[in-house]
Structure formats: C-alpha cells, structure tokens
Amino acid sequence: MLQRENNKVFYKQKLNRITEYIHNNLDKKISISTLAEISHFSPYHFHRISRALLGEPIGVYISRIRIETAAKMIRYSKLPIEDIAYSVGYDAPSSLSKAFKNHFNIPPIYYRKHRHHTIKTTNIMEVSLNIKKPKILTIDNKYCLFYSMQGAYQTLDYANAWAKLWNEVKTQKLFTAGIEHIGLPFDDPNVTDDEKIRYEACLIIHKTAKPSGETGVKTLTGGAFAVFHYQGSYANFPQVYNFIFNTWLMENNYQLRDEPVREKYLNNPNKTEESKLKTEIYIPII
C-alpha cells in the first residue's frame, strides 16, 4: 500500500511539471518530446501515463486549455480576437475560429458580441452579495507551498489539501508569522467541464521549502490587482465572480492580465458561520 502511495506521489510531481509548462507556454508550439523530457517519463510510456493522470490524452488536454483560455480572454478582455488567437498558440485567427466553433458550437466573434451567452450550462441562483468596492493594489511576488486538485469546486476536499500543506510546514519547520491561505481557481465553470476544473491550495510562506510528496513549491507572480472583499458563504462564489466579470469589469477600464485569480481566505470555515466567512478576491489587471 505504501509503495502504491509513493508511486502516486512520484507521478503527481511529474504531472505538476508538465501542466505548469503547458500553462506558461500556450503562446508557443508545445512538443510532446519537450513535455516528455521535462517530466522525465520514459518516452515509451509518456502518453499512457500522462493520459492516466490527466484523464485525457495530452494533445487533447493542450487543445482544451488553449480553447478555454481563449474563451475566457474573449469574454473578459478587450483584446482583439486576432491577438488572442496568437497568444494561446494558434497560427492564425481562422484556426481559433474553427476550433472554437467545433468546441462550443458558436464562433468567437458571436461570443465576443454576446458575452453573457452561456457556452456551458450552469445553474445559478440569484443571491444578495455582501461585496465591497475593490481596492487597486500592487502586490509583490509571493513564495508558496501548493497542492493541486481537479474536479468541481464544490466537491473538492479542501480540508485534506490544507492539512497536507500544514503538515509540510510542520515537517520542514517553515512556521513564521504571516502565513496566508490562498486558493487559485484556474478554470471558469461556465467554460470548463466539472471533472476538468483545476484548483491549487497555496500557503504563502517566508522560509525556503522543498517539494515533498504531492506538494510543490513555486512563486506567485506579483503585479496590479483589483482586490474585492466579500463576506458570505463560499457557495456564492459563482455569483461573486459573475458580478466581478460581468458587471464590474465591463463598467471599468481595466483589462485582465494573464494570471489566475486568487482567493485569500481570512478566517477558518470550521470555526466561522457561513454568513461571516471573509474572502479577499484578487483579480489580476493592467
């Protein structure tokens, strides 16, 4: 049993290298040979192992991340579709248009003109949100331990993720004042199928750490952020993001940077009433 768990950890670490490279290089041609080299998987078994870990072939994964990233940029930025096509790795805008229509059944120009059009069906109830006007802040780079998960946001085992991260803090003697709980929800559930949604739980730390088991180490890029303070249940996050992206962003002159949004959790959900949970939501802007 221990050997089986060690194998899982071993392959998860390698998968982290692959997905980080893909997400950071969408604007370039991504070769399978490069991914195999980065992961150190045997060339003979690379496709089989990566498919088992990702739940889909590596080529399909890359294509899906490209088209879903394009969809978010079309919806939430003012960049020309031509620029978006090149920024996510298409050799021509016509290639993006063809792939977009095949994937979502509508052309990208239609989606740009009808930003509220739902390309993936979701059920959202209207709720009253306790959310304040954002502050525009410049944030420094932040060093963190992270743990990756995949699946619908409402079904992920967050308690297990935080427990694993805090165990590393204890094991590696990383505790200091000022450790922050940050969530990176990479995917828009309006675009990405539930089983493909990616999330990283991060602890911002102030000592040098080493990757261990399923936990990794990286630096979160700083820059300008619109920081929203929201109080209420985490279950209302879909409505919070709808307000930010469909109302606030459309009414202001800011554009999104190519970084994931961040959620900073300010109190413990195990010790706090849902209505009193406090979250800062960081929207990367230019």
Task: Write the topology of this structure.
Blueprint (H helix, E strand, L loop, with lengths): L1 H23 L7 H8 L6 H9 L3 H19 L4 H7 L5 H12 L3 H6 L16 E2 L3 E5 L2 E9 L7 H14 L8 E6 L12 E7 L10 E6 L2 E9 L5 H12 L13 E4 L12 E7 L2
Antiparallel strand pairs: 1-7, 2-7, 3-5, 3-6, 4-5, 4-8, 7-9, 8-9
CATH topology of the largest domain: Multidrug-efflux Transporter 1 Regulator Bmrr, Chain A
The assigned structural class equals alpha+beta
Range of helix content: 25-40%
Number of helices: 9
- Total count of strands: 9
Element-by-element helix/strand order: HHHHHHHEEEHEEEEHEE
Q: Give the tally of structural domains.
A: 2
Quick check: average pLDDT? 89
**End-to-end Cα distance:** 49 Å
3D architecture notes:
38% of the residues lie in helices and 19% in strands. The chain has 286 residues and is α+β, with helices and mostly antiparallel strands. Strands 1, 2, 3, 4, 5, 6, 7, 8 and 9 form a 9-stranded antiparallel β-sheet that branches. The chain is globular, with a radius of gyration of 19 Å.
At a glance:
With 286 residues, the protein is α+β, with helices and mostly antiparallel strands. The chain has helices at residues 2-24, 32-39, 46-54, 58-76, 81-87, 93-104, 108-113, 158-171, 237-248; strands at residues 130-131, 135-139, 142-150, 180-185, 198-204, 215-220, 223-231, 262-265, 278-284. The protein has 2 domains: 2-113, Homeodomain-like (Arc Repressor Mutant, subunit A, Orthogonal Bundle); 130-284, Multidrug-efflux Transporter 1 Regulator Bmrr, Chain A (Alpha-Beta Barrel).
